[in-house]
Request: fold
Amino acid sequence: MKPSTTLSFQLHGLVYSIDKLAAELLKAESDINFPQFLIVLCAYQHPGCSKKYMADWLQLTEATVSSTSSKVFAKGYIKISADSKDARAKKIVVTRKGRQLVDRIYPIFEAALEPHFKAVSAADQKKLQHSIITIK
Reply:
């Protein structure tokens, strides 16, 4: 079997294409890159989360989250503070500037991706969502 015909290879290709599209859109529309946007998005969806939680959610190392979140913090998109229960742990909260970024950029992503999914019925999209959650 050729690797290019396997489901895993095809999924990898799809994820790469979506990530590339997102990176290009962010470059044109903002001052942060795609990994930095994911930090903001996680803080937006999970207010007050720890760096450890964020690393698990994004499937990155804590060191990568720490380095990337410092850059995003410097641009004013998130706040980082000590956790009241554990001074060694850091809580990450999205700022108003970060919320505005997500609220502005996310619809652009959706609009850019919509043509790629038009050929897939709503029922099949729901099945695909379920499958992705199951695989994850």
The longest strand covers residues 78-82. The chain is about 70% helix and 10% strand. Strands lie at 49-50, 78-82, 90-94. The helical segments are 7-29, 34-45, 51-58, 62-74, 96-117, 122-135.
